[in-house]
Amino acid sequence: DKIASSTNLIGHDVSRTGVQRALLKPMEETDVDLKVPHDPISMLEEIERYRKTGKRKKTIVNTRNILFVVSGAFHELTELIKKRMVDQGIGFGATVTSRSERGDYLKHVKPEDLIKFGFETEFVGRLPVISVFEELSEDDLYAILKNPNNPVIISKKLDFKAYEILVRFEDKALRTLARLACEQQTGARGLVSAIEKVLLKLEKKLPSTDVKRLPVTEEVIEDPEGMLQEIISTHDDPKWTQLYEKLTHEEKESLKEHLRNNEAVLAGMCKIGLTPSRIDLIADVYTTSAWSINGIMEKIGTYYDQVKKVEAYFHKTHDLNVNLDDDAIDIVIREMFSAPTALGEFYKQLTTKFEYGFKLIRDRVGQDTFVITKEAMENPEGFFNDLVKKIYTEPSDC
What we know:
Elements: H1 14-24, E1 31-33, H2 40-53, E2 60-62, H3 77-88, H4 102-106, H5 111-117, H6 121-125, H7 138-146, H8 151-161, E3 166-169, H9 171-184, H10 189-205, E4 213-216, H11 218-222, H12 224-233, H13 238-261, H14 263-270, H15 276-288, H16 293-318, E5 321-324, H17 326-338, H18 342-365, E6 369-372, H19 374-378, H20 380-393
Parallel strand pairs: 3-4, 5-6
Antiparallel strand pairs: 1-2
Helix pairs in contact: 3-5, 7-9, 8-10, 9-10, 13-15, 14-16, 15-17, 16-17, 16-18, 18-20
């Protein structure tokens, strides 16, 4: 809607109409030269390249397989549609719709309405599909806030974490924020202004206090000034710690449910399975950091590959095939999240606690492939005792 020509001008709005006309050819199948004459930098680079090589290099993109999506708010379009519909329905049979039902009018948009709005006929003709989005309801905004990848909540947690303050949000608080944002009638953008309006006062004041844990409840959202004073004056009260731990537990359980419900999609992102232990790992990392689920999953995938490389290096060095099961890998990954040297410590553990025992077993029965379980990682001595007992109670092939 920003490139539509103004209806208040007499004649063509050259700047906006020019943008529309410039988009006409790219919106059809054509070859677009990425180096344009009015870009002096690219022209100088091309001259220098031609001077050195004597050849002209053209960088061209074909727009055949490019999908163009043109979107906007189109606030004034409603009046044009309303006028057309009222003109067509004048008389006793006319249907009079309230002004507040803006979305109902937009559902009846036609190309002629867009042309009256300020678009060129040729431009509208290249947009074969017109879709109208529904307005976000309070439930929609609440669902956005509940999404673990929601950047509004994550960014606010990061803001407080910069001052070493950990934040947890009560479910009722998120519902109240959604209601405040819905009242602004600005869509999802209202979430940012709603949460900033409430928590900005706390963000300014709390860093200079001893408060390190902030449970954001419904009362905090409705009365930030009053609750700020109460939190500061009674921050040593055990009730705040108990409330914070309660909200942490609720957030963790909610996240686990989200992971289980979206297991197929999330597992495909990092190309590893979501076992129960891995779901617990993701939930623990999420609640102790301010990372998004996508970021955590990508990191786990990276750490998983690094553990597999250590297994391959151990095989190359000691001629032993060692494979960690998923639960054992999760133990290593958990340590890698908390300590940058955890991978080196894991390899050291393999060589000091497992290598000698595995070689003894290999020399005894010829077995050179071993699976390290979670129990083996936690208790190597007990793992080898059970393994040796099992081997020595079985008859040898010799």
